[in-house]
Design a protein that fits this description.
Helix content: over 70%
Strand content: under 5%
Order of helices and strands: HHHHHHHHHHHHHHHHHHHHH
Number of strands: 0
Shape: globular
Length: 462
C-alpha cells in the first residue's frame, strides 16, 4: 500500500520535473519567451491548490480506493490533452485537468498512510513512502531531456499512460476502501471562496511575467487574494467543518512546518524552474545534457533517504532542521555566482549537497507536521497542509519567473547576464527566512515520532 502511494507521487513528480527541462523547447514551438512557459507549471499547481481542500471530503464520502482510481483516470486524460496541445493556451487548460486529478491522487494516498500507521512508526514510514517518490525528480530531468532532444517534449505526457493504467489496477487490488459512515457536510461555499482567492494570487503573479497583459489586470487579480482571504475568515468563523480548517494552525509543530516549509518550498521551486533554462540558454547545454546535470541532486537525495530517520532519532527535529535549512540559501548564493567556463564538477558537487540537505529537511517537515496531530483530524490536516504546500511551490515558480523577466527588462545592457543571478539571490533570501521560524521548535518537538525525547531522558538518568 505504501509503495503504491509512493509510486503515484513518483508519476506526478516525473511529469513535473521532466517538464522543466522541456520549457525552452516548448517556448520555441509555441513562439513565446521562456518565462511565459511557466504557466504550464503554475496552472497545474493552481488545479492542485483549488481542489486539494476537497480531497479529504471526497475520500470520506466515496471511499479512498474509488477516489484514487478516478483521480488517476482524470490525470491520464489531462496527459493525453497535454501531448496533443497545439498552443500554450490549450496546454495550460490541459494541465489544469491534470491538476484536478493530482489534487485527489496524492493527498488521498498520503491520508491512507497516515490513517494506518502508528505515530511511533511515522518517521520510518514517511521515509519509505518518499523513497520511490525520490526516483521521480531523479529520473524526470533525464527522461525529459532525452525525450525532448530525441523525440519531442510531447512524449513527456504520453509516458504517463502505461504507468497510470498499471496504477489503476494496483489501486483496485491493494488500496483499502476507507470511507466515513457519516461524512460531515461539504463546505462548497468555502471551497469556492478559497479557490477564487488562490486563482487570483497565482494568475495575478503569472500575468506579471507575460508582457501582453496590462498591469491593471494583474493588480486586479492580485487584489482578489486578500479580499477572498478576509471573506473566507469571516465565512469559516464558527463553522464546525470548514473546507480549510485554520484552527489546525494552533498546533505548534503543524504551524511551524507550514510556515517554515513555505519559505523553503518557494526557494526550491525557484531552483527547479531556473536551473534547467540557465544551463540551456547560457551554457549551451541540450535538454538531455541539462537533465543529466541536474540528475545528481536526486542521487544525493536518494542516499540521504536511508539515514534521515537515524539522524532525527539521534539529534531531534529542532537541531537537525535548523542546521539543514541553511543548505538551500548557501546553494542559491553559489548558483548566483556560477558562470560559463567554470568547472562543471563544482556544480555537480553543489547539486549533490543540495539534494542531500533538502531530503533531510523535507523528511522533517513532512513528519513533524503530523507529530502532534490527533488522528481524528488527520484528514483536515492533510488537506490544509497539501494546499499550503502547492501554493508555496506555485509562488516559487511565479516569483522566479517574475524576477527573471524583471531582470531582463530593468537591467542595463552591460548587466543583462545577471538576470539569473538576481533570481537565485532572491531565492536565497526567501530560503533563509525559514531559520527564525524553525528556532521556535522546542528541543523535544516531535519526540513521540522520532524517539529523541526518550534518548535525552535516558542520558539524564544515566
Amino acid at each position: 500500500m505504501a509503495l503504491i502511494v509512493a509510486s503515484l507521487m513518483m508519476m506526478e513528480q516525473i511529469d513535473g520535473t521532466a517538464l522543466t527541462t522541456a520549457l525552452p523547447a516548448m517556448a520555441g514551438d509555441f513562439h513565446v519567451d521562456i518565462p511565459q512557459t511557466s504557466i504550464a507549471l503554475t496552472v497545474y499547481m493552481l488545479g492542485l491548490a483549488a481542489l486539494i481542500p476537497a480531497s479529504g471530503h471526497v475520500a470520506e464520502r466515496f471511499g479512498s480506493r474509488t477516489t484514487l482510481r478516478y483521480a488517476i483516470a482524470l490525470f491520464l486524460s489531462g496527459s493525453l490533452l497535454c501531448g496533443w496541445a497545439p498552443d500554450l493556451l490549450v496546454l495550460a487548460l490541459a494541465r489544469l485537468v491534470q491538476g484536478a486529478g493530482g489534487a485527489m491522487m496524492v493527498p488521498v494516498g498520503r491520508l491512507v498512510i497516515l490513517q494506518n500507521v502508528p505515530k511511533s512508526e511515522l518517521l520510518s514510514a514517511m521515509a519509505w513512502v518518499m523513497l520511490p517518490a525520490t526516483i521521480g525528480p531523479m529520473a524526470g530531468p533525464v527522461l525529459g531531456g532525452v525525450l525532448t532532444s530525441w523525440l519531442s517534449w510531447r512524449w513527456i505526457f504520453y509516458i504517463n499512460i502505461p504507468l497510470g493504467l498499471l496504477a489503476i489496477a494496483l489501486t483496485g487490488w491493494f488500496i483499502p476502501q476507507i470511507r466515513a459512515a457519516r461524512p460531515p457536510p461539504f463546505d462548497l461555499r468555502g471551497n469556492i471562496i478559497s479557490a477564487t482567492g488562490l486563482a487570483g494570487l497565482i494568475f495575478g503573479m503569472e500575468m506579471l511575467t507575460h508582457p501582453g497583459f496590462p498591469p491593471v489586470m494583474s493588480a486586479g487579480l492580485l487584489l482578489l487574494a486578500p479580499l477572498c482571504a478576509a471573506l473566507y475568515l469571516h465565512h469559516a468563523r464558527g463553522m464546525d467543518h470548514p473546507v480549510l480548517d485554520l484552527s489546525l494552525l494552533r498546533v505548534p509543530t503543524f504551524r511551524i512546518s507550514v510556515m517554515a516549509g513555505g519559505f523553503t518550498r518557494i526557494a526550491t521551486a525557484g531552483i527547479i524552474f531556473l536551473l534547467p533554462s540557465l544551463l540551456q540558454t547560457r551554457f549551451g547545454a541540450s535538454a538531455a545534457q541539462s537533465g543529466l546535470i541536474t540528475f545528481i541532486a536526486p542521487v544525493g537525495a536518494l542516499a540521504m533517504r536511508f539515514v534521515a530517520p537515524r539522524i532525527y532519532r539521534g539529534r531531534g527535529f529542532r537541531a537537525v532542521m535548523c542546521v539543514t535549512c541553511l543548505v538551500l540559501p548557501v546553494v542559491c548564493l553559489l548558483l548566483a555566482r556560477f558562470r560559463p567556463g567554470m568547472d562543471m564538477g563544482w556544480l555537480l558537487g553543489l547539486l549533490a549537497i543540495n539534494g542531500m540537505g533538502q531530503t533531510l529537511l523535507y523528511t522533517g517537515y513532512n513528519t513533524i507536521a503530523y507529530a502532534d496531530m490527533p488522528k481524528a483530524r488527520m484528514g483536515a490536516a492533510t488537506s490544509l497542509y497539501s494546499t499550503c504546500q502547492q501554493v508555496m511551490l506555485t509562488m516559487g515558480i511565479c516569483l522566479s519567473a517574475g524576477m527573471l523577466a524583471a531582470g531582463r527588462a530593468a537591467l542595463p545592457a552591460q548587466w543583462q547576464g545577471q538576470d539569473y543571478g538576481l533570481a537565485f539571490m532572491a531565492c536565497a533570501l526567501i530560503a533563509f527566512m525559514a531559520l527564525p521560524i524553525l528556532r521556535r521548535l522546542s528541543a523535544n518537538a516531535g519526540a513521540t515520532v522520532s524517539g529523541h525525547g526518550d534518548t535525552v531522558a535516558t542520558k539524564k538518568r544515566n
